[in-house]
Design a protein that fits this description.
The structure holds two protein chains of two kinds. Chain A is α+β, with helices and mostly antiparallel strands. Chain A contains four helices and five strands; from the N terminus they run ββαβββααα. At the A-B interface, strand 2, helix 1, helix 2 and helix 4 of A face strand 2 and strand 3 of B.
């Protein structure tokens, strides 16, 4: 079992430690932000925690939904982190190719692909599609 | 001791002792935790004096103590890096909790990654 909570616009989850000597209700009272609404649910009913910052709910935690626009922003941030070392490597290749007088068109194409990859998130319609996005070709 | 120490990736560090079940090494510990994560979902493998993990931001968790420490005069020694690698850090602490984080792993990373720490104090 896990504990969902909502305080103002923040929706989060508490993972109780097994065998800690406290009941779920005691943990909810002790560890949720003061004044938060809490709800105990089965683990399997948890919303997708990979998009936890995109969780939204009404004030009674009736249902937690994922704001797809926020999920797209989260995915774009992930892709930016993942592509950074690849872009840096392409920059090195580009300089080396220029110094050697070699063709740089393939390198430029790859740099552009990496730069544009965050745009792929805009066309996604589900969080599964967002999670499947990768910097690999 | 005072303050916080975190971010060690030493394989001979705390996480190895916990992985080996050598809990007798930590008889003076105020708390300890071993957890795994898959994506952003944490699982508590084993713990002492920990009531739970709260999550509301990706890759950051608030670990709460069953018994609050009388002050913040404690030291956390932690380690992370099994599986996909990464490092653990501390972003805040108080008498009732510590905020910990692990270097980012994208949602496409599904293999569990371990993290563990031990809290020592006066």
């Amino acid at each position: 079992m896990i504990i969902l909570y909502k305080k103002d616009e923040e929706v989060g989850v508490l993972i109780p430690a097994p065998n800690c000597g406290l009941t779920l209700e005691q943990i909810a009272v002790k560890d949720a932000p003061e004044g938060a609404v809490t709800k105990i649910i089965e683990d399997s009913d948890s919303p997708d925690t990979d998009f936890i910052e995109a969780w939204e709910s009404d004030d009674k935690l009736t249902e937690v939904t994922i704001n797809l626009t926020k999920a797209k922003d989260i995915t774009k941030d992930r892709l930016r982190v993942e592509r950074k070392p690849l872009l840096e490597a392409e920059d090195v290749k580009f300089m080396q190719a220029q110094e050697a007088g070699s063709d740089t068109s393939a390198i430029v194409a790859e740099k552009n692909r990496l730069r544009d990859i965050t745009k792929d998130a805009d066309s996604c319609k589900t969080t599964d599609e967002l999670k499947a996005l990768t910097i690999k070709e | 001791m005072s303050g916080i120490i975190g971010g060690s990736r030493s394989k001979s560090g705390v996480i190895d002792l916990i992985n080996a079940g050598e809990f007798d090494q930590f008889q003076t510990a105020k708390a300890w935790l071993k957890m795994t994560r898959s994506g952003n979902t944490p699982t508590i493998v084993n713990s002492y004096n920990v009531s739970g993990i709260a999550s509301f931001v990706y890759s950051r968790w608030r670990v709460t103590w069953v018994t609050p420490f009388p002050d913040t005069n404690y030291v956390i020694v932690g380690s992370a890096g099994e599986g996909e690698g990464g490092a653990m850090g501390i972003s805040g602490y108080a008498t009732t909790y510590a905020d910990i984080y692990m270097t980012t792993h994208g949602p496409t990373v599904s293999s569990p990654v371990s993290m563990a720490f031990v809290v020592f104090g006066d």
